[in-house]
Specification:
Elements: E1 6-12, E2 40-47, E3 53-56, H1 59-76
Antiparallel strand pairs: 1-2, 2-3
Length: about 80
C-alpha cells in the first residue's frame, strides 16, 4: 500500500489562489516588491489519496486538521490478522 501524505502549501492573495513561492515577511507580505507577489493569504493542504482538501488562514490550524484527517483514515484501514 502506498504511503498517504498531505502536502501543505502557502497560497497567494489573488483571485486564482495560486501557490506562493516567494520569500515573505513574518506578516505574510512579499519581501521583493519587484516579484509581483500579492502576499500569502492562507495555506492549503491536499491528501495524496485525493479525498481531502482544506484551506485555512494559519498553517497551525491546517496541521491540526491534517492530523485529524489522518486519524480518520487510520480508523478506516482494516486490521491485518
Amino acid at each position: 500500500m502506498a504511503r498517504i501524505t498531505a502536502t501543505i502549501r502557502p497560497i497567494n492573495d489573488d483571485a486564482d489562489k495560486t501557490i506562493c513561492t516567494h520569500p515573505v515577511t513574518s506578516t505574510g507580505k512579499h519581501r521583493d516588491p519587484e516579484s509581483g507577489c500579492t502576499g500569502r493569504a492562507a495555506y492549503t493542504a491536499t491528501c495524496s489519496a485525493g479525498d481531502w482538501t482544506e484551506t485555512r488562514r494559519t498553517r497551525a490550524e491546517l496541521e491540526y486538521l491534517r492530523d485529524v484527517h489522518f486519524g480518520t483514515r487510520i480508523a478506516k484501514v482494516p486490521a491485518h490478522t
